[in-house]
Amino acid sequence: xxxxxxxxxxxxxxxxxxxxxxxxxxxxxxxxxxxxxxxxxxxxxxxxxxxxxxxxxxxxxxxxxxxxxxxxxxxxxxxxxxxxxxxxxxxxxxxxxxxxxxxxxxxxxxxxxxxxxxxxxxxxxxxxxxxxxxxxxxxxxxxxxxxx
Length: 148
Prior knowledge:
Blueprint: H1 10-21, H2 27-43, H3 47-60, H4 65-77, H5 81-93, H6 99-113, H7 116-129, H8 134-140
């Protein structure tokens, strides 16, 4: 719940820690809890801690697309843009429930790498997939499309 909300307080991390101490979590639940804790770490600007949790989640379930999307976002935050592009591309190959998030973060990575066309394409795809999400449309306002 804390990861889905906008929480980033210590109590939210403590709840994840407590859940991870449980011997009764399935590997899938453990991976999901690690992803949730990583999201909270990211909100706290603790990208390295987020990556540690996401690496553990991916080790438990290499096909967990959500973990790879969050890992890609963390890599963007850590300014590891080329790594982020690869991770987010892999996430998209896995068929995530919310591909618009992968496209959005990959667009940011492409933009930082200087590939403006790829960034525009991915922001556009994110906006198309999630028309009620304002973030991709906001990013697109910075671009000028020229006919060539």
